[in-house]
Automatic annotation (TrEMBL):
SUPFAM superfamilies: GntR ligand-binding domain-like, Winged helix' DNA-binding domain. This is FadR/GntR family transcriptional regulator. It comes from the Bacteria. InterPro entries: GntR_C, TF_FadR/GntR_C, Tscrpt_reg_HTH_GntR, WH-like_DNA-bd_sf, WH_DNA-bd_sf.
Length: 231
């Protein structure tokens, strides 16, 4: 879940990783975060870098430190309005809604066709893309590349050349959309499980289940984005 840091600006990197764990609720309000020594080992950085990052988070009211007990995620972190803390979605509302409509029409139809037409190689390719996602769950950029690959493999399994060409034509905006979601909200366990369940639904020829899973994921993303707008 935590990767060693090799970049020059280590304080900002430590800060960003701790912040990401809080935003994605891996560390929830009231949770005790690892000790300074543990964080030093996790990030492979000096104690000074860890202390500076913690101090920055403490100054924002995100972390509270109790002498002799350690540092904790602030119980009121979800109520804190911090423009510099909560990430900005670099995707307009129209771009987001356009992608929702695209997925609810083209992608859903491709799932119907994939369930009818997918052969063993198609299923294997979808599964391979899924494994790449799981292997890169700690790197949202690489994860997003294979996230697109997963959805593209489903479209390929439809055996409809026009849909395949259309998916290739929208690769850039579709990939950007996925990367922004994964950057802002992090690669959550729900996202991982959702893709695993989608794969199983397609493998077992259950189109309705696969579409319901995607629809549930999109609904959750809409709610998260609305929450960001209300901050």
């Amino acid at each position: 879940m935590i990767r060693a840091i090799e970049k020059q600006n280590v304080v900002d990197e430590v800060y960003d990783q701790i912040k990401s764990h809080i935003i994605t609720s891996k560390w929830k309000p009231g949770d005790k975060i690892p000790s300074e020594n543990e964080l030093c080992q996790m990030f492979n950085v000096s104690r000074i870098s860890v202390r500076s990052a913690i101090q920055k988070l403490r100054g924002l009211g995100i972390i509270t430190t109790h002498h002799g007990k350690g540092s904790f995620v602030s119980p009121s972190v979800n109520e804190v309005i911090l423009n510099g803390f909560f990430p900005v979605m670099n995707l307009s509302e129209k771009e987001f809604l356009d992608m929702m409509e695209f997925r609810e029409t083209i992608e859903f139809k491709c799932i119907d066709l994939a369930v009818q037409r997918a052969d063993e190689q198609d299923i294997q390719e979808i599964g391979q893309a899924l494994q790449k996602m799981l292997s890169n769950k700690d790197d949202y950029v690489k994860y997003s590349v294979h996230d697109y690959e997963f959805h593209f493999c489903v479209v390929k399994a439809s055996k409809n050349d026009l849909f395949i060409k259309l998916m290739q034509a929208v690769k850039e905006p579709f990939s950007y959309y996925l990367e922004e979601l994964n950057r802002v909200f992090g690669v959550s366990e729900d996202s991982l499980k959702g893709h695993i369940d989608q794969y199983e639904a397609i493998r077992t020829r259950d189109a309705q289940k696969a579409k319901e899973l995607i629809e549930a994921g999109m609904k959750e993303n809409r709610q998260k984005i609305q929450q960001l707008k209300n901050k």
